[in-house]
Amino acid sequence: QRGLYDIIKQNEEMLRAFARMLIMPAPMVEGMTISNRNSLTVSLEFEAPEDDARQRLLELFG
User: Fold this and answer.
1) Number of domains in the chain
2) What confidence score (pLDDT) does residue 43 get?
3) Percent of the chain with pLDDT over 70
4) CA-CA distance, 12 to 21, in Å (whole number)?
5) Within 13 Å, how many C-alpha atoms sit on residue 15's CB side?
6) How far apart are CA 18 and CA 28, in angstroms?
7) Are 32 and 45 in contact, with CB atoms under 8 Å apart?
């Protein structure tokens, strides 16, 4: 287990970040053309809420 359960159960935002990593893997997002790296397109591509897509883009590209 490596303590992952204990870490994510203590911090909901960390759990959400982990879920975003699973749903929208960095290599797949980075593989999108730059013009498609926006919250709406990422949301549609990965079938994720637009707010989560926006946050994932911020995590990956600042």
Assistant:
1) 1
2) 98
3) 98
4) 14
5) 8
6) 16
7) yes
Q: Side-chain half-sphere of 38: how many Cα atoms within 13 Å?
A: 4
The whole-angstrom separation of Cα 59 and Cα 62 is 6
Beta strand segments in 1-62, E: none
Query: Could you tell me which residues come within 8 angstroms of residue 40 by beta carbon, excluding any fewer than 6 positions away?
Result: 50, 53
**pTM for the whole structure:** 0.82
Phi and psi at 10, nearest 5°, equal -85, -20
> 27: number of CA atoms within 13 Å, CB side?
0
Q: Specify the pLDDT at position 9.
A: 75
**Domain membership of residue 38 as a residue range:** 4-61
Q: Are 43 and 12 in contact (CB under 8 A)?
A: no
CA 22 and chain centroid, separation: 7
